Fold this sequence. Notes:
The complex is a heterodimer of chains A (70) and B (361).
Chain A: H1 3-15, E1 20-27, E2 35-41, E3 53-54, E4 57-63, E5 67-69
Parallel strand pairs in A: 2-4
Antiparallel strand pairs in A: 1-2, 3-4
Chain B: E1 2-3, H1 6-14, H2 18-24, E2 30-38, E3 41-53, E4 71-75, E5 83-92, E6 107-109, E7 112-115, E8 121-122, E9 125-129, E10 135-139, H3 141-144, E11 155-157, E12 171-178, E13 194-198, E14 204-208, E15 212-213, E16 230-235, E17 239-255, E18 261-271, E19 288-291, E20 296-304, E21 313-318, H4 319-326, E22 328-329, H5 348-360
Parallel strand pairs in B: 1-5, 3-5, 6-14
Antiparallel strand pairs in B: 2-3, 4-5, 7-8, 7-11, 9-10, 9-22, 10-13, 11-12, 12-13, 14-15, 16-17, 16-19, 17-18, 18-21, 19-20, 20-21
Amino acid sequence: MSLQQVIQRNRKRLMMIKGVEGVGAGAKTADPQERCILVYTNVDHWPADLPRQLDGYEVEIQRTSGFHIL
Amino acid sequence: MARASFTDYKRLIRGANQFTRMLKCDCINGYGLGFKRKKGKERKDQLSIVVFVNKKLNLRSLPLVNRIPEQLRIPDDRATGGVLEFHTDVQEARFSSLQYVNKERPARSGISIGHVDITAGTLGGLVRDNQSKKTVILSNNHVLANSNDAAPGDTILQQGPHDGGNDPKDKIATLTRFVPIDFAEDAENRVDGAIATPISPKDVIWNTRDIGPGVPSAGRKLGEDDIGIYVHKTGRTTEHTQGYVQAVFVTVQVKYDLFLKATFVDQIVVSQSPVEEPFSAGGDSGSLVYDAGNNCVGLLFAGSEASEEEPARTIVNPIGFVMKELGISFLGKGDHPTEKGGKKKKTKKTTKKKKARTKKR
């Protein structure tokens, strides 16, 4: 399954996890050539219920203050 | 102690001084040599170092290092008593590059615009309305249609109201239509977009500031392989900036006010390296985002603030969804005047060719 399909299938569930502000396809911090599932969170810790891996793709979190219109 | 002469003031201003540090930390907006002002009038007999700030504050409310005393006493071996006395005057003034927030006719893209009831956003670009076949202005729903609260025919100002735009003096267009934003909890939005028809085609020019004439003219869909690529935009607030695609196929929750949130899916996230200026800020909404080949990749509409731990991020609607949901297409050569040449006259021959092409489709 492609990364896009994995995200499409799981985005609703992931967005319901407390502290999650966004979910998308990104590059791994350690190896930018490798793809991963990027999860934007408004908390410093790893949110409870957020898996470390989904359908073979690693999950990475990125801290954000939240998104608003500009 | 001796009073500083004009030459002393000049030397102080040009050399290393405490105001340079204050300017660097954004404590002041600028400083220079001028006359002291009292009750709104310049005192031509009182040379001063004029320091510009956002708001004059009581000295007691400021940390010691940021206080500007009325007299500055600076040791100087050449002065009588070894000390030179300089006068200061704190005045309220802000400065910005005016070219992106000013009224401009014909207006290029990348500058201030807005619905009469909003603050200001960015005129994204000129495109063709597939319904009226007219050249129209593309920006966000929340810039041209006040986040669903507007009606077709409403006044659009350039510059936006926050930048001094007034109705009817600065009216440039009327709202044509917008993609409604669905704020329902389970709704999935893809576009925060709207179009407006210029009052006169002569009021706009097919040119994006800092990017060039005839832009936008083509678009491109971003995929997984585009993660990490360089993109750029011109916007009302941060002007021309560059960043990189951090994520694609993104689902995000975006706040429209204290209570109103909308979910957007299949979005693009742009970020920038720590040494670069933030890609966007408030007022840049409506900017079109381009790849290195100036293919339009999306419509900027939201973002997050930078903090010590994380850089600012910008949310962009993929251009394909914008074009489809608004019913618009890119302008072609000769469709509208650009800054580097007038509108090309259509000959009967080209018109026939176009008709033939349309029929084939």
